[in-house]
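Predicting holo structure, iron/sulfur cluster bound.
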Amino acid sequence: MGKPTGFLDYKRQENEAIEPLSRITNFNEFHPFLDEETRRKQGARCMNCGVPFCQSAIKLKNMVTGCPLHNLIPEWNDEIYNGNDKRALSRLLKTNPFPEFTGRVCPALCEKACLNGLDQDPVTIKENELYTIETAYSNNWMKAFIPSVRSDKKVAIIGSGPAGLALAHDLNRRGHAVTVFEKEDRIGGLLMYGIPNMKLEKKVIQRRLDILTKEGIVFKTNVNVGKDITKKELEKEYDAIIFATGSKKARDLNVKNRDCTGIYFAVDYLTKATKHVLDNTEEISAKYKHVVIVGGGDTGNDCVGTSIRQGCASVVQIEMMPKAPDERLESNPWPEWPKICKTDYGQEEAIAVFKKDPRIYETTVKECILDEKTHLIKQDIDIINVK
Ligand code: SF4
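Done. Tokens:
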């Protein structure tokens, strides 16, 4: 434990976000890092608890709380406080192959379980993690690890999302020859096309892919396994085949006139938006449109942020469930996952632009009402369905 009184001496301080009206002018990430001294103090807030719930991943009332990777959180917090960034990195990489992704997009189950959260603010675990890996990249400490012994076994991994990449990383390090197949034009699955650029800049993924490629992993894009290559062909060439495909099958709305024009699934919408950012290809643009987003979760929020950046005329997000309380109820104590209302970045931006929260609770779609051209009743209303 770096500083026994750290949690009393220093308050939680997060990377400050660029204010909404500025950040919506582009699709860049918008959380500049704290200076080094302040970050080290954030590491000092960790108490190195005898029972560190932050890394426990226990299930309470059917919900996981604490880090599912069992990251060695108190150890690297201590190293950050003491200025040992290289040692912090080595502890971090023991359990987490891609901290640059989790440090950006993980919902931070660790922080919800952090003991400091019992009566004050939890340690900034997720940002400490991001600081550690980004410090490593900027100091050129992240090198390709090429196995010295190969096993002569060949493995095909179908799907290049986080699961496929983590598998490829681990199996390659064990000496197997790994080939990853991806049906899209870029590697990364939902990391690449499901998460908007402002949450995870795509150059961050490419930076990691460059290392994985140097380590010997072969990536094949635009290959739809089952169509472009058969199961038999794979079985002939590889000793093992692993399915690491996600589920791009959207849950549709079973309502009258659902087949009208102007309704899109969220992943299709977000995919095209990111391709437009990267390649200037055609997007599903919300420019000047009144947008209705069905679904109040993280993906719905990403659609809010994307619609706003595209210049929508208005945005509404509808949610079936009632609004969650602003603070934990007595029936939902620490270290359970807190069932509280969070206002995410897209919703903050909607509030800044349109002066009201886009969310409407306890509401769902009953019917799509059309004009004579089979478009939704107002020519300029589009629905993005995130279910
Ligand atoms: S629960 Fe919080 S204070 Fe305790 S070891 Fe984990 S990060 Fe540190």
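Residues 263-385 form a domain with the FAD/NAD(P)-binding domain fold (CATH 3.50.50.60).
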